[in-house]
Amino acid sequence: MTAVTCDAPRWLRRGCRLVSVEPATAAGGRWALPGSGAPTLRMVLGTPGDAYVVEVVREGVYAVDARGGRTAKSAEERVGAGRLSFLHDHFAVDIDLCAEERWLACADLLHGSVPRPRDHALRWVADVLAERVGCRLATLPLDDGRWAVAERPGGREQVRPCLVPAPSWCGGSPTAADRALLPSCLYGWAAAGHSWGKLASLAVLTRAASPA
Questions:
Q1: CB–CB of 209/30 below 8 Å?
Q2: What local confidence, expressed as pLDDT, does residue 62 receive?
Q3: 125 near 97, Cβ under 8 Å?
Q4: Are strands 51-58 and 14-23 parallel, antiparallel or unpaired?
Q5: Buried/exposed code over 189-205 (b: 16+ C-beta within 10 A; e: otherwise)
Q6: How far apart are CA 17 and CA 58, in angstroms?
Q7: pLDDT the model gives residue 7
Q8: Are 94 and 103 within 8 A, CB to CB?
Q9: Nearest CA to 117 among 89, 148, 86?
Q10: Which parts of the chain have pLDDT scores under 70?
Q11: Residue 150, class by beta-carbon neighbours within 10 Å (0-12 exposed, 13-18 middle, 19+ buried)?
Q12: What is the C-alpha to C-alpha distance for residues 189 and 187, in angstroms, rounded to an integer?
């Protein structure tokens, strides 16, 4: 699999993203950014005893009900209204599409879009957190469909890279838009305080639209 060419839309290379995490029993209808065609990826992340709906949208913190109903629009209002149990914004950079140091240095999430061998990916995610103190999560896709992840630990704990299951994709192989947004779903899992060791399955419910 090859990387997206350098003329790919800017949001595929880098940008702010908004991710929500909530128990599957509390998840409501689909949400999207204002306007048509806003890339949205919606997944169910399962543990042995629970399931969580994780949804990510690109660029900005404003959201509206995709069904057109009246609702709070800002992230803060949505949380205050009890619509979301967890919501977080972050800055993500794809290392396969963006090599500019100014963006790499300020990323909360560094990820790739081209699959790597297992050992290479595990070394890379650990090295990234050692080198870039501002990065909270590093993740790379593997050539067998799984993902390597490393989260910045608290206190004096050592970075422990791990593997998460290969996502179950509805409707065929992942697109460039899917690969750009899936790492943010993993970021939301980490930021919500969930354990990687309990993550047993990833199932995609709503695919991101391919960029124009």
A1: no
A2: 40
A3: no
A4: antiparallel
A5: bbbbebebeebebbebe
A6: 4
A7: 63
A8: no
A9: 148
A10: 1-8, 25-39, 59-87, 155-157, 208-212
A11: buried
A12: 5
C-beta of residue 56 within 8 angstroms of C-beta of residue 40: yes
**Strand, coil or helix: what is 78?**
helix
> For the segment 107-148, what is each residue's pLDDT rounded down to a tens digit?
999 999 899 999 999 999 999 988 898 899 999 999 999 999
Structure tokens at 1: 């699999």
Q: Detail the DSSP E strand segments found in the chain.
A: 14-23, 31-32, 40-46, 51-58, 64-65, 87-94, 109-111, 137-141, 147-151, 162-164, 201-206
Query: How many CA atoms, within 13 angstroms, populate the side-chain half-sphere of residue 11?
Result: 21
- Residue keyed to tokens 């702010």: 16
Q: Which long-range contacts (CB under 8 A, 24 or more apart) does 74-81 make?
A: 75/18
Residues 6 or more apart whose Cβ sits within 8 Å of residue 176: 4, 8, 12, 113, 210, 211
List the beta bridge partners of residue 91.
16
Q: How far is residue 116's CA from residue 88's CA, in Å, rounded to a whole number? A: 28
Q: Which residues contact 63 (CB under 8 A, 6 or more apart)?
A: 18, 31, 32, 33, 34, 57, 73, 75, 78
The predicted pLDDT at position 162 comes to: 95
